[in-house]
Design a protein that fits this description.
Number of domains of chain A: 2
CATH topology of the largest domain in chain A: Ubiquitin-like (UB roll)
Oligomer: heterodimer
Shape of chain A: globular
Distance between the termini of chain A: 40 Å
CATH class of the largest domain in chain A: Alpha Beta
Largest sheet of chain B: 7 strands, mixed
Radius of gyration of chain A: 16 Å
Low-confidence stretches of chain B: 1-44
Mean pLDDT of chain B: 93
Helix content of chain A: 25-40%
Number of strands of chain B: 30
Strand content of chain B: 15-25%
Low-confidence stretches of chain A: none
Structural class of chain A: alpha+beta
Largest interface: A-B, 67 and 76 residues
Chain lengths: 168, 762
């Protein structure tokens, strides 16, 4: 066990964990942010995708010890419930999710893709997103939503606030 | 209720309590809608200020407070099919509620209160559409009466809209909340007096409604089983016996206990054989402060196993044995005419053997459950499809009354039938009881793939005979796969009537001689049900053979299917099944007939929409398949392009679907889009193989699923518009896609597919 400082979504957490602990479990079990999901434990499915200094990584296969001072961003850190990120907004407009379990990881990958390629082609999207499995099969809508988010981001307009969801 | 008594002949004798039909019990409860049984109409509660407030709750599915808050109960499990949205919206539409302001609350597992909650078999909408309409209409009538009384006008002059009662002639309006106190004093109207809305006045049913959990999902706030939390909660990861039926001989936990954070090591006794559809496997659990410590501890456990009689099992050998088996005569399960005579008189005989592997559910959220067992009570939070079945078996296992067991249902990160089984919930409860700690059992991906209730491998042989006029004269379908029932009763070695009714004995085409035969295939793994169950292999064999029949007859495959379906009429099968029963998905064939006209209509529609018959470049092709399952009619056309000899690209998929009344068109579309991808995984990528009784695939590198680059690109869903009784859409998209794809590959390359997953390299 070792005391480590992790900066997650702009907030510094001191965690006392095995340095080999995958970042995923530090985020979920120790820090208590549950939006990042466990799917495979060996970087095969992308459900655990987070950003380190803006670069997507599979947190299930990234030991806490390699993070050091890099800034961690999770699904909870890309927007707020009232002011969603353009990618999240596009996901709502295209009604992407089915069960929703993989979507945090899909969204984190899509955010990174659009930073790298603001205007991706279908092929760019397919190649970049191939590390993220969706067992429900929402791929077609993910592709549409990434194109939509690309448009929203380039309009440079503030993303509109989503109306309060039903049931809340 | 996946295999209720009426659905699977074996079940009554062989299944545990949880899988017995709970449907009929529900229908008794359903009497509250039809028999005028008044439930607690008037409830009082207090608001934050401590003031007594009135609540209108004419049935268990909705409450309206005098403050105007409308709460709708979602009592079925949400696994991506959208049921937490689609059933509540039916209540809201009938009631005239303002959807943007209703609150959806997930019911806990309580069959007596809510009726059937076993979310399986594509029957949520089929079973609950009418009860939900009646629930909404009952509350509406009470509110209308209360308003009419106050205004001293006739009820017929009043209407509801946006959570208000409107006096249509004067335009006067009252909020629902203002009427609650009066409405809850009125007697609940008898069913005969409940007038349901004219479908023409629906505002939501038949349209596209976004799911209620959309915002929570995209912002990472949605709570799945893995996210369940209780104060003081510990995590358990279990090393289970790698062979079904084996058990722990001895174990050494020294190294595991030395891992920082590991708290306890507890063995779990398994049932041996039969493995059952409910009980945990034999294993050793490591309980730790966090998941990582539990996984590390588990890796360091040293366990000696008694592997049991399945330790020599090999799936490759099983397929070889079953291939020989289906070449012989089997047990006749449906017979029409004289197939032997048809074959003797045939000018052409087409005969092929079809092989499909074991499949795992591979829900992206592996099974997980949190349990607290304390003071003679048990509370569980889990991603379960079958909360009430789990509740019964938890009570029985823990030796406490059912009413001391509370099941909270989280969102399910995929389910596909896997999460119908309560084994992971029992593991959590047993460990919580033994350790005295709140325990969350977390399955890893390896656990999930090694210890699933697998979709069984299958070997089938189909023989089709044509006479001199190219008429299809005979159809002989041989079937061998381990039955789901064998998981409960090892003496079962042949498919049940229920399994055969999923695309084999309900062969709908007009052929003078039909003989369907089954063969012995003992089970060596835990066999379960996977989205659309035996429809997967049976539709694969039937619909690809039909494509060959069309070719041999010199008839276009679509025209061939329309011709062989014959005159518009309702089909029956049971008279040709000897003592066998045709299950019809648990419904009577009178209530839900097999309507040839509806099948022909979806075929004609999909052919038109997909441009069937159009010229495609060399290396591309269209393939067709039609398959009714779960009482929903589906026809599918897949367009394929084969590049570089073996790379399969799927630019377009067209589906036409007749599921009766469409409730939420967006979720119908999304289930078909996803169903095509699900089927594409099993057609192109996935196989579980077994050696020495142990599954050989460990993770997604071995058990592969479709990923975005190879996924079907555009899936077009054409929904037939009618007002027939609604039927389910969760499973019906899966069966026809794979044979349509195989037929498209043939059109593109001239290569026929007889083995799944498809391998064009071989």
């Amino acid at each position: 066990m070792a005391l480590t400082k992790l900066t997650v979504n702009g907030k510094v957490y001191s965690v006392d964990v095995d340095p080999n602990m995958p970042l995923l479990w530090a985020i979920r079990d120790v820090i208590g942010l549950k939006g990042t999901k466990f799917g495979c434990g060996m970087a095969q499915c992308g459900a655990c995708t987070v950003h380190l200094n803006g670069t997507p990584v599979r947190s299930c296969s990234t030991p806490v010890s390699v993070v050091k001072t890099q800034k961690i961003t999770t699904i909870e850190g890309i927007g707020t419930p009232d002011h969603l990120h353009a990618v999240q907004q596009a996901w709502i407009e295209e009604q992407v999710p089915q069960c929703g379990y993989c979507q945090s990881g899909q969204i984190m990958s899509a955010v990174a893709l659009l930073k790298q390629k603001p205007n991706p082609s279908d092929e760019d999207i397919d190649t970049y997103m191939q590390g993220n499995i969706c067992r429900c099969g929402t791929y077609q809508r993910i592709r549409s939503a990434i194109h939509k988010a690309s448009g929203l981001l380039q309009e440079k307009k503030p993303v509109k606030t989503t109306p309060a969801p039903v049931g809340k | 209720m996946k295999i209720p008594a009426s659905f699977d002949g074996k079940t009554d004798a062989s299944s545990t309590e949880i899988f017995k039909a709970s449907r009929r019990d529900f229908l008794k409860i359903g009497g509250l809608f039809s028999g005028g049984l008044a439930l607690g109409v008037s409830l009082f509660s207090c608001n934050e200020k401590g003031e007594k407030t009135a609540t209108l709750a004419p049935n268990v599915y909705l409450t309206i407070s005098s403050a105007g808050d409308i709460t709708l109960i979602a009592h079925r499990s949400e696994m991506g099919q959208g049921i937490r949205t689609s059933l509540p919206l039916v209540i809201a539409d009938e009631l005239g509620a303002d959807w943007s302001k209703v609150k959806i609350v997930q019911a806990e597992g309580d069959e007596k209160k809510y009726g059937n909650q076993n979310t399986d078999g594509s029957f949520s909408i089929r079973m609950f559409y009418k009860p939900m309409r009646e629930a909404g209409a009952t509350a509406r009538l009470l509110l209308l009466q209360a308003a009419a009384n106050r205004w001293k006008v006739s009820v017929t002059e009043c209407d509801t809209q946006n959570s208000q009662v409107i006096h249509t002639t004067s335009g006067k309006k009252l909020d629902f909340g203002e009427l609650v106190e009066e409405a809850q004093k009125l007697p609940v109207p008898a069913a005969a007096n409940i007038k349901l809305k004219d479908p023409g006045r629906f505002t939501m049913i038949g349209k596209a409604t976004p799911i209620v959990d959309l915002h929570d999902i995209v912002s990472g706030q949605a709570v799945f089983g893995i996210d369940a939390f209780a104060e003081g909660m510990k995590i358990a990861v279990i090393k289970r016996c790698p062979v079904v039926g084996g058990s722990v001989k001895s174990f050494d936990d020294k190294k595991a206990l030395a891992v920082p954070g590991v708290l306890k090591v507890i063995p779990i006794k398994g049932p041996g054989l039969p493995a059952t559809l409910s009980k945990p496997l034999s294993g050793v659990a490591v309980i730790a402060e966090n998941t990582w410590a539990a996984i590390k501890g588990r890796d360091l456990l040293e366990v000696q196993w008694d592997l049991g009689p399945n330790a020599t099992y090999s799936s490759a050998e099983d397929i070889a044995r079953l291939t020989k088996e289906v070449a012989r005569a089997g047990t006749v399960r449906r017979n029409r005419g004289d197939f032997a005579a048809a074959k003797a008189g045939a000018k052409k005989v087409i005969e092929h053997t079809y092989i499909a592997p074991y499949l795992a559910h591979a829900t992206l959220e592996p099974p997980c459950a949190l349990a607290v067992v304390k003071d003679g009570r048990c509370e569980v939070w889990a991603c379960t499809q079958n909360p009430q079945g789990a509740r019964d078996i938890l009570a029985e296992t823990l030796g406490i009354p059912v009413d001391k067991v509370k099941i909270n249902i989280t969102l399910l990160g995929g389910a596909f039938g896997r999460k119908s089984k309560p084994d992971f919930m029992l593991e959590a409860a047993l460990l919580a009881k033994e350790s005295g700690l709140p325990v969350k059992v977390q399955w890893t991906r390896e656990d999930d793939l090694h210890h699933d209730y697998f979709h069984a491998l299958s070997v089938q042989r189909v023989v089709a005979t044509l006479d001199a006029q190219n008429k299809l004269t005979g159809w002989n379908h041989h079937i061998a796969y381990p039955s789901i029932s064998a998981t409960e009763d090892q003496s079962v070695v042949q498919p049940s009537d229920g399994e055969l009714g999923l695309g084999a004995t309900d062969f709908p085409y007009q052929v003078p001689a039909i003989r369907i035969e089954t063969h012995d295939a003992p089970a060596h793994l835990r066999i379960g049900w996977l989205r659309s169950v035996r429809n997967i292999p049976q539709a694969f064999a039937v619909a690809t053979m039909m494509d060959e029949v069309a070719e041999a007859r010199g008839v276009d495959p679509v025209a061939n299917a329309l011709e062989l379906l014959g005159e518009d009429r309702n089909l029956t099968f049971e008279q040709e099944m000897g003592k066998g029963k045709y299950p019809n998905y648990g419904e009577s064939i009178t209530d839900y007939p097999w309507e040839v006209a509806r099948m022909k209509a979806v075929i004609q529609r999909v052919a038109k929409e997909a441009g069937w018959g159009k010229k495609l470049p060399k290396g591309s092709g269209l393939g067709f398949a039609a398959h009714k399952s779960f009482l929903t009619y589906v026809a599918c056309i897949v367009e394929v392009r084969v590049e570089a000899g073996n790379k399969i690209v799927i630019p377009h998929v067209h589906y036409a679907v007749d599921c009766g009344t469409a409730v939420n068109t967006d979720r119908i579309r999304s289930q078909f889009e996803g169903g095509a991808q699900f089927s594409a995984s099993l057609a192109l990528k996935s196989a579980i193989t077994v050696k020495n009784g142990q599954v050989e695939q460990n993770n997604f590198d071995g058990y592969q699923l479709i990923r975005m680059p190879e996924s079907p690109k555009e899936i077009h869903v054409h929904i037939m518009e009618n007002q027939a009784k609604p039927t389910g859409i969760g499973e019906p998209p899966v069966p026809p896609f794979t044979p349509a794809l195989c037929n498209a590959i043939y059109a593109a390359t001239g290569k026929r597919i007889y083995t799944l997953p498809i391998d064009l390299k071989g």
